[in-house]
Amino acid sequence: MRKMNTPKRIPxxxxxxxxxxxxxxxxxxxxxxxxxxxxxxxxxxxAELSRPDAALATELVYGTIQRLxxxxxxxxxxxxxxxxxxxPWVRSLLRLSYYQLRWLSRVPxxxxxxxxxxxxxxxxxxxxxxxxxxxLRGLLRDGFDTVLxxxxxxxxxISLNQSHPLWLVERWVERFGERATENMCAAGNEHPxxxxxxxxxxxxxxxxxxxxxxxxxxxxPSALAEAGIVAIKAGNLGHTDWYRQGFISIQDESSMLVAAxxxxxxxxxxxxxxxxxxxxSTHMAERMRNEGVVIANDVHPHKEALIRQxxxxxxxxxxxxxxxDALGLSERIAPESCDVVLLxxxxxxxxxxxxKPEIKWNKTEDDIASLAQLQGKLLEQAQSMVKPGGALxxxxxxxxxxxxxxxxxxxxxxxxxxALDPVWPEEVLAPLRESxxxxxxxxxxxxxxxxxxxxxxxxIARMRKKLR
Length: 468
Ligand SMILES: C[S@@+](CC[C@H](N)C(=O)[O-])C[C@H]1O[C@@H](n2cnc3c(N)ncnc32)[C@H](O)[C@@H]1O
Hints:
This protein is an alpha/beta fold and 468 residues long. It has helices at residues 17-32, 36-47, 51-66, 68-76, 88-103, 109-123, 126-142, 154-161, 166-176, 178-188, 205-214, 241-244, 253-262, 279-287, 304-313, 359-362, 365-383, 405-414, 426-434, 450-453, and strands at 195-198, 218-221, 228-233, 248-250, 269-272, 293-298, 319-323, 338-344, 386-396, 418-420, 445-448, 458-465.
């Protein structure tokens, strides 16, 4: 879903109903490069849909973006000049209708077609209505199995069946093999599970799981993160008193491993270079039992308040927020003054495709190369503030060796005073070992893949600065 140069408005005024809202969001994501999450929130607020309709619009937006490759492949067989020669809003309408007919069986097929034709006529003309009617009824007649030509490569087949861009699938097949890549892409199409992190200053995981269960929520302790709770059927955890009163934070289970690997102790001085919205800063402060200091820095001034709000909600007074480019941090923070420095770097996000599906269509190999350069520079800054004997932790939510292992290896070549540190807390290593996901000869770098635990794809490396 690359941004096009000539954005056009959808004719026919304000969107009404779930499908029109979804269509307008998809249109804006494609034509203006808008973020699906932000765009959807704004559209839902403006349209004042009922809860079921808002849920349907949400499902249509995310599902259509997730399955875009497969949808376009199938529509390309039926619509002349697809997709370029078709009006962008008609494209969005056909795509979301295809998604609904193939993957959302709870809506009767005739209702999907009738509604799509109604929207096409209302916003276009009878001719567009006829096109939409013909395409959708043809699909209903012929069925929805994607039959691919036998001569396709494994990567081409996975790309079309699992709807991921070919360049990405080719890289992953080369590195992880066909089976793991297919599983990874399938995991990328799953709905993300909601999970929460327990604030140990307010209660234990057992207490909170049992309190939630008593309240009728279906939750489980995380198999990956010691502080994690996975929601099976629990509604929006962010709307509960557990959240409002600081018992829990909403965080992915993989993300929870980062503070566990950093493992700061009470009384330490800790720096989080790229901290907003504060998930890992607050987690580290919790693990430090609110003793010591966590300096939470981010480049964007408006994000400082987000970190502050989280720290206040959780009752963490040791989180000190600062704003500035992490590339200039060493001008503001004394050299070798921190026991632990975390660089949770900006990255291509290929591990969080489940949450932000447009990443698949917006990111390019050039983005990976330029992010890798920035990450190398950020790590260079971050290291200068680590005390001798202290820890430097580097993490990303992506699955690209250039942004992960290569950044760390290049750094270590230039910094013989650092070494990878494989001595991670047993709470992190045990679940990895027991599930067969701890690499042989583990050196202190871990690439978590989304299919391993159903959590985000994440990379974590822990390095130690040698004592002089
Ligand atoms: C992966 S997110 C951090 C998530 C955060 N650690 C958490 O767990 O909530 C990366 C953050 O880096 C920030 N960022 C990007 N470039 C930066 C820079 N040059 N200096 C400082 N922060 C930066 C972004 O604003 C973004 O909030």
